[in-house]
Design a protein that fits this description.
alpha/beta, 8-stranded mixed beta sheet, single chain, elongated
């Protein structure tokens, strides 16, 4: 996990002062796990779920399971649920998102990171290029406009598959449906979107 992404998760979790049970969807048994964050030092229990398991690492365990159906966890059983760089590999990500909401207690924190796409950097470049006389004449040409109809996104990385990229709107409105205090932040280029919210 890139340090910028790790720091953003750390910042969000530190602000919430998490002391209860924490779940990481897609947890790994190494220092890249979000369950290793200093902000979770006072959590009463830390557990992960992954298709590859079971594992024990430091002060947490990772159960073998599919996050599309987390029957091993009761409704509203976690104070915080974290998930990073997992949903793009999940053929049925909406099932996992529903399960994340199900297992998070009301008032609990949900933080999700995914590769995304955002408007912005190419729009600014396009505006500057259109001011150049030659390019201003080409502005109506379909190939010129095609260059700027695209956006940057993170490379395909099969692990085991790579199916999705998400917009900030999808993160806010779909991942965090039924949540309050929702915020979505784009970090890095190509963009990674990190959203957080409090379950109602």
């Amino acid at each position: 996990m890139h340090p910028v992404i790790y720091r953003e998760f750390e910042r969000i979790c530190a602000a919430q002062k998490i002391r209860g049970r924490v779940l990481e969807v897609g947890a790994v048994p190494n220092e890249r796990s979000l369950l290793c964050m200093a902000s979770l030092a006072e959590a009463s229990e830390k557990v992960g779920i992954n298709l590859d398991g079971p594992h024990t690492y430091r002060d947490f365990r990772i159960l073998k399971g599919n996050a599309n159906q987390m029957d091993c966890f009761a409704d509203q059983s976690f104070d915080a649920v974290l998930c990073n760089a997992t949903l793009e590999h999940d053929r049925f990500f909406w099932k996992t998102v529903a399960e994340i909401r199900r297992v998070t207690r009301p008032g609990g924190l949900i933080v999700i990171g995914v590769p995304g796409y955002v408007r912005g950097c190419l729009d600014r470049v396009q505006g500057r290029l259109r001011r150049l006389p030659l390019l201003r004449r080409l502005a109506g040409h379909r190939f010129f406009n095609g260059l700027f109809a695209a956006t940057l996104t993170y490379q395909v990385h099969n692990s085991p598959g790579d199916y999705y990229r998400f917009s900030p709107q999808a993160v806010a409105e779909i991942f965090f449906q039924g949540c309050t205090d929702v915020s979505v932040r784009s970090v890095m280029l190509p963009p990674r979107l990190i959203g957080c919210g409090i379950r109602l």
